[in-house]
Structures are given as C-alpha cells and as structure tokens.
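tool_call predict_complex ligand=thymidine-5'-diphosphate
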Amino acid sequence: MTAGGRFITFEGIDGSGKSTQARRLAATMERRGIPTLLTREPGGSPGAEEIRRLLVEGDPHRWSPETEILLFTAARRDHLERTILPALAAGKTVISDRFADSTRVYQGAVRADARAMVDTLHDLVIGRDPDLTFVIDMDPELALRRGLARRSGEDRFEEFGPDFQTRLRAGYLSLVRDFPDRCVLIDGNRPEDAVAADIAAQVGQAVA
Ligand code: ADP
Ligand code: TYD
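tool_result ok
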C-alpha cells in the first residue's frame, strides 16, 4: 500500500498540542519522501480563512451554536473543494489540524445537543471523513494555560472557561468510542518529542 492520498486529522481540546503535532507529522512525512499538505480548520482556503475570523474572534456569545454549525460547515465545504480534495486527488497525504469531528464535539455535544443537525448537514454537504484521526487527550487546566499563554487574539472558544474544556474532553473520549476504526487516542500529557514519536510510529504502522 502507498501512503499517497491519505487524509489524516488531529483533534482535541484547545491547547492540547494539535498544531504542534500536525506540523511535526507533516515534517516527518516529507522526510520519508511522502508528498504532504498541512492544513487547518477553521480555514485552509482563502474563503474559509475569512469565515474563520468571524468564528474565533470577538464576544463568546456573538453566534448561537446552530449558527456556528452553519458557518463552520460553510468554511469546511470551501476547504474541502479548494484544498483537500485536489491534494488527495494529486496523491498527497493531507494532514488537517481539526476537521468535522470538531463540529461533532464542540457544536454537536458541548455548545448544544445538536448532533443530529451536525450529522445531517455533514452528510448533505461534506460527506467525507478522514482515514485516520489522532485525538490528543490531556488535562484541560494545563491545556487552557498553554492556550491562553499564546494570547493569539483568537480566544473566543477558550473564553468559555475550564468547565467547557472539561466537557469537551469527555466529548472527545466519546467520539473515539463512536469511531473506533479511524480514531486513535493519544496521551498529550507528555513531552512534545514523546507524543511526536508515538504518532509517527502509529502512522508508520498504518501505512506499512
Ligand atoms: P493546539 O493546536 O491544540 O491548540 P498547540 O500545538 O498550539 O495546541 O500548543 C499549545 C501550546 O503548548 C504551544 O505554546 C506549544 O508550544 C505548547 N505545547 C505543545 N505541545 C506541548 C507538550 N507536549 N508539552 C508542553 N508544551 C506543549
Ligand atoms: P483552533 O484554531 O484549532 O484553536 P486551538 O488551536 O485553540 O485549538 O480552532 C479555533 C476554535 O474553533 C477552537 O476553539 C475550536 C473551535 N471549533 C469549533 O468549535 N468547531 C469546529 O468545527 C472547528 C473546526 C473549530
């Protein structure tokens, strides 16, 4: 089996180390000679990056969970059409820092009990799930401290507070149980190098 055309995503609560690990895995893949595209959500295409600003900045209550579902899904459709599908078709491995599982957990389970709306919309306009998803699990208080330490100005979701992050963590653990074939739970409470080595080994096994 070749590694080309595989779609890999990173999920987890804010500050769990997804971006760090997505970047490191992309570098590892390139070193292994596997053409790779690193992308992220919300964003990953020019249009979706514009929608991102509406979502991650400003008052925590500026959108209802239902409106968020529509905005995240609109951004995802653009990202899929313009960035992900063309790269997969060209044989690249695509690594995305967040994808549809974030909507399942944040909007579908924690911001609201809206999983049916999330799933229906996903089936209608996205219709694609990753081949492999790393869910980085870690202590919410530590993750929140890491996240807020960045002071990126994109803290709208972090500002829902520690209880929100605790519920997100539970939401992700439940997601892993829902999709056991593609989800791998990773212990993020370890030094960066140990987490990266674990992930690289898992991908190596999956493509061997
Ligand atoms: P996320 O994308 O999940 O929000 P990041 O990868 O941006 O998380 O990491 C959040 C912060 O924590 C960054 O400042 C990053 O350098 C740091 N960090 C990432 N992984 C680790 C780790 N394993 N141990 C300690 N700090 C980490
Ligand atoms: P991101 O930039 O990945 O934040 P972080 O690096 O802090 O994890 O994502 C921005 C925020 O958007 C994040 O708090 C999670 C949230 N989000 C959703 O609520 N639903 C979604 O579908 C996506 C993709 C992100």
